[in-house]
Specification:
Helix content: 10-25%
Largest sheet: 8 strands, antiparallel
Distance between the termini: 11 Å
Structural class: alpha+beta
Number of helices: 4
Mean pLDDT: 91
Shape: globular
Strand content: 35-45%
Number of strands: 8
Radius of gyration: 15 Å
């Protein structure tokens, strides 16, 4: 039995692919990463942000006037890429694509605030990012890239 896409939280990814989820969380949680959204005309827009991962969730807080928030409310598709530590990329890479869900529930906000490395302002809006595809690239022993993938329903 497959869960529907709207039910695909970070917890689903952790359950289905614990090793990839652990690496992805290590590279993303409370670090600077990049969030790609789609503008009204369909062109991409890139934003730095601080992913919040924990308790089975993948959250992002933002200013209510943020272009990325407007983009995600209109079209929930996103892509996230972690920062790399240097030009070699040896620390590894993570790319997550999926759909964002606008969160208004006070209990979910409480969870997100508690796992955040900073104190989100009350005015910030909250989205949960639901992964549909995750690609991890590692460079074991200084060798060439090794890519591993997870996709909904696998």
């Amino acid at each position: 039995m497959h869960e529907c896409e709207s039910d695909m939280t970070w917890k689903t990814f952790e359950t289905q692919s614990p090793n990839l989820a652990e690496f992805a969380s290590m590279r993303l949680h409370n670090k600077v990463a990049y969030l790609a959204t789609l503008r009204k005309d369909g062109s991409p827009r890139m934003h730095p942000f601080t992913p919040i991962i924990g308790e089975g969730h993948f959250f992002v807080f933002m200013e209510p006037t943020s272009p990325k928030g407007h983009d995600l409310r209109r079209d929930p598709r996103f892509a996230v890429h972690c920062s790399v530590s240097d030009t070699s990329g040896e620390s590894g890479e993570v790319i997550v694509t999926g759909k964002a869900v606008f969160i208004e529930d006070a209990n979910m906000r409480f969870v997100a605030v508690n796992i955040s490395s900073y104190k989100p302002a009350e005015r910030y809006i909250l989205f949960e990012l639901h992964p549909e595809n995750v690609t991890v690239t590692e460079y074991p022993d200084g060798g060439g890239p090794v890519r591993r993938h997870w996709k909904i329903g696998q």
